[in-house]
Fold this sequence. Notes:
The chain is mostly helical and 194 residues long. It has six helices and no strands.
Amino acid sequence: MSQPPTSQSPLSAKEVPSSFADNQAYFDESRWQKFTRRLKEEPLIPLGCAVTCWALWGATRSIRSGDSYNAQRMFRMRLYGQFFTIVAMVAGSFYYNSDRILRKEYEEILKERKAIEKRNAWIKELEARDLEEKDWREKVKEVTQKRKEEEDVARAKEEAKKGDGVVTKAVKGLRGRLAGEGEGEGGGGGGGKP
């Protein structure tokens, strides 16, 4: 898993203030910061590029003015500048190799941490959507059940008004049976045999 940011910035040897220890934006490097850091790490490369460009500009100026001796001198200067730049690049790559390896490891850890944060945020979003969907389904279930109960109550009221309802029929049937039993007991129970 990823480790929390240390109290030392990977971009400089300075200690990070404690209020910035958890601030990831402090550890992220912009393009300008990377450019200035690389300039500070290897200042000879831009110097060699500048000498090469200056020699090319001087050679162009000499050719336009017709000074072939100075043009040849500037072309040689361009070669020396390019050679110096290549040597500076190779020497810098050997000198800063361990720093670059550490920098790549740091960038991989940072990338992994961002991927984990993105995954956790996505999982949290999915969980929130699940909860919303469950709440929505419960509300829909409650509403449909309430509508069904209201429809049943309305149907029962209609049946009660009509007098054709199941309950009404059952009550009438019971009344009829009770009335039939009451007549049978009261009419034939006085004398025994006729």
